[in-house]
């Protein structure tokens, strides 16, 4: 089974479990004046509870297999002309928020709206005021571009990896 198949099966199983919970809710009790919907309704409810439990066990098994596969499968992505290899799990975390946080840090490198200019002192002397930057603006711009595009590059690569990588048993 491929990773994508496992992910899709989990979604399907979650829907089936939700349907069973609704059936259990709707049929677990009636008034004494009502007629049960099913013959042997108590046995049917118990069957639904067992089916629900079995579905959750399958979801757990698939999730653990996906996590194990994600931790153990290396993936190489080219970033800024360099081949970077990380596990699928690491790339997922980069995609989820870490690349965006890296981008945020580089975006904080600004001139803080400071203005260069010439000011006059009380003694009449003029002083040229310049901004002192403790960063390279070109490097900042390159890093902002890199980190803002990284999630898309990760998405593209992981779509392919999820379709071709077998789940670890």
How many distinct helices?
Answer: 4
Q: Which stretches are low in confidence, meaning pLDDT under 50 for 5 or more residues running?
A: none
Strand order of the largest sheet: 1-2
> What is the SS-derived class?
mainly alpha
Overall shape: elongated
SSE series: HHEEHEEH
Overall pLDDT: 97
**What is the total number of structural domains?**
2
Amount of helix: 55-70%
Q: What is the multimeric organization of the chains shown? A: single chain
Description of the molecule:
- The structure is a single chain.
- Helices cover 62% and strands 12% of the residues.
- With 169 residues, the chain is mainly α.
- The chain has 2 domains: 70 residues; 91 residues, no CATH class.
- The protein has a two-stranded antiparallel sheet.
- Strand 3 and strand 4 form a beta hairpin.
- Helix 1 runs antiparallel to helix 2.
- The longest helix has 32 residues.
- The chain is elongated.
